[in-house]
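User: Predict the complex with N,N-dimethyl-L-histidine.
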Amino acid sequence: MTNLPLIHFHDFHPPLGDFRSTILAGLRSEQKQIAPKYFYDPQGSMLFDRICELPEYYLTRTEIALLNQYGDQIADSIGPDAVLFELGSGNSNKIRLLLDAIRPKCYVPMDISKNHLFQSVNLLAKDYPWLEVHAICVDYAGSWNLPPGLKGRNRIAFFPGSSIGNLTPEEAVGLLRRIAQFVSHGGGLLIGVDLIKDIGVLEAAYNDQQKVTAAFNKNLLLRLNRELGANFQVDRFQHRAFYNQGFDRIEMHLESEEEQVVRIANELIHFNAGETIHTENSHKYSIAGFHRLALRAGFHPVKVWTDPEDLFSIHYLQVQDER
Ligand code: AVI
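Assistant: Here is the predicted structure with N,N-dimethyl-L-histidine placed in the model:
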């Protein structure tokens, strides 16, 4: 742990062995798959930042507009002196919109991408010298414990960007339950959730004209080449993203253009022509559907903010106080 004035870094990054064995297990299964958390190496994180600026990717700008418009109401709901956790903090840009209004006691960004986290936190600390920051490099979807010394009373989790949609509903309930446990009674969750909408709008958001999303998806294969010595020929795979109405989700895949064999960490993986690696789900919810999920996890809906076109929602949920 390195201490700088008011910034504390805690590194719980999983070891490389976990990465190799998880990737190989996913590629050996009948429907080949790679978990979306592996998108976010330094290159992938940069590509994701570019996705957030794309004209088709309405999620980020709509959520930012809501945070700007309703920042004061959000701060009122959260209350003063919060210990504010952010799951998947990335470049920490969204929290900047709330910090002056919320004035938390302490900010705890959590992200799996170490370099991205360190850079963003250093920039943030320069702009908010009054803020105590505990940055944690961790896979928040795995099992984790809070570092000691963060036992503030008013614990609030911030989980923007509809990253909850990258989990299946069952996994989402599991994660929400864990968040409810660590914010504990009286604690809250401010969470961004993408809404079910016109399929054309959804599919365009994941098939942008500049092909940044395709590059983001294919970067997974380049990452396996870089880090596991794999020999993927990336131009022999196609980016596929489509809405699966039965599951209310966008699915992303990498489709093999032809029959081929790829070597990964000394193992040979066979691909049929047209066979895919399933790389991401991005579930979409109705307001009522998301409330049902939150209630199953022990959260009670307090407030929800949406834009005039009902593209995106921000929910404030609370774990009911023990009386
Ligand atoms: C991070 N997550 C919410 C994004 C999404 O929309 O599911 C990841 C992404 N995948 C493709 N474009 C953006």
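Residues 58-78 form the longest helix (21 residues).
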